[in-house]
């Protein structure tokens, strides 16, 4: 059954409620926005030392994603980029957004002992995709 939300309700004026709802939406998906089968490939890509090669590799992985994932990711990252652009007001840098959204959008299917290491890479992947948005999603 579809839930009807009244977006005029005063609770939606609190940005933390909106952010929490957005994160919960992505967290509750049957599979993360970055599908499980791509997790290790994205982790390997973020480890590439050469920045140009790293961006190129991430771009190529993003292009391989299922269309709904790609389209959603492009819109979400475009929006998060706008948030990062107002960092002086909202204190949300690309690094902060990586910390907030990394583990929600990108996670391994089975949690292993490498959780702390994975979290670092999850954050870095989101951060890179925000800071290099035009190179990754541009035509």
From TrEMBL:
<keyword id="KW-0963">Cytoplasm</keyword>
<dbReference type="InterPro" id="IPR008936">
    <property type="entry name" value="Rho_GTPase_activation_prot"/>
</dbReference>
<dbReference type="GO" id="GO:0005737">
    <property type="term" value="C:cytoplasm"/>
</dbReference>
<dbReference type="Pfam" id="PF00620">
    <property type="entry name" value="RhoGAP"/>
</dbReference>
<keyword id="KW-0472">Membrane</keyword>
<dbReference type="InterPro" id="IPR050729">
    <property type="entry name" value="Rho-GAP"/>
</dbReference>
<dbReference type="GO" id="GO:0007165">
    <property type="term" value="P:signal transduction"/>
</dbReference>
<feature type="domain" description="Rho-GAP">
    <location>
        <begin position="1"/>
        <end position="137"/>
    </location>
</feature>
<dbReference type="InterPro" id="IPR000198">
    <property type="entry name" value="RhoGAP_dom"/>
</dbReference>
<protein>
    <submittedName>
        <fullName>RHG15 protein</fullName>
    </submittedName>
</protein>
<dbReference type="GO" id="GO:0016020">
    <property type="term" value="C:membrane"/>
</dbReference>
<dbReference type="GO" id="GO:0005096">
    <property type="term" value="F:GTPase activator activity"/>
</dbReference>
<keyword id="KW-0343">GTPase activation</keyword>
